[in-house]
Specification:
Length: 98
């Protein structure tokens, strides 16, 4: 998980937003899983049975999204704090990763 947080933080720097970085990360992960499913022959017909899952089973995606976004915000906050302490800071209110 530490590697994922670091990579997502770098992506957040590139797109200037931990939210967009998380969205891109999940989109790429979804595509990768779909390709894996196609290559390995996992039957897609089993997806229909997901509707019978307990409601709590559906929160995994939400938790994952908040974890990724939270780590991006934590990394941005640490960078911001370090820059303020070193005297190198900006007042750009729209810069989420600085």
């Amino acid at each position: 998980m530490a590697t994922q947080a670091t990579v997502n933080s770098k992506l957040a720097e590139s797109v200037n937003s931990p939210i967009l970085a998380a969205f891109i990360s999940f989109a790429v992960g979804t595509i990768a899983l779909f390709v894996y499913i196609l290559l390995t022959g996992v039957p897609l017909t089993d997806l229909a049975s997901a509707k019978n899952a307990a409601p709590v089973a559906w929160i995994g995606g939400f938790l994952g999204a908040f974890f990724v976004v939270g780590n991006g915000n934590d990394c941005a906050a640490h960078r911001r704090r370090a820059r303020v302490q070193s005297g190198d800071w900006r007042t750009d209110a729209h810069s989420y990763t600085d």
